[in-house]
Amino acid sequence: MAVETDVLDELRRLRTRVPRLAGSLAATVDGLVLAHDVPDAEPEGLAALTAAALGVAYRMADAAARGEFRELLVRGGQGYVATYAAGPTAVLTLLADDRVNVGRLHLEGRRSGARIAELVETRTGPGGGRHADRLAPREAPGPDRGPARPVGTLPVRTPQRPAHRPQPRPGG
Which terminus has fewer CB within 10 Å in the chain: N or C? Predict the structure, then answer.
């Protein structure tokens, strides 16, 4: 049985446990769909947006010195989008109606995120799969690996000075 089937089973069980859950999606931190149960949305686009939001959320938590990313909640006029870490290589995104019990959503979302993390890790193994080049959070960087960066964060780009100074224009 493939990891996608196991993850999809978990997403379907999650829908039965949370009333007013409109959909769910498990994806890699790079934005690739693992499994989805989103009838009214495009799963590939949602996974890509989740990856982008995840990168910003990691950076925000780090910049505000609030520790490692755990979850992100967005409230819109018609409901919620909740994103939960599912181990170092996966993420769980839930779509819920505006009348959902947010406490229940968090409780079940966190549980499912942990379960999906277990499923992904047992199927690919630690350090295996397409994220083999990334360090797990509990590993320390080795002397030959270079600086470690939390999974899902974006590299910081420092602007360089121009090679030449612009010349002032006459009459300006």
Answer: C
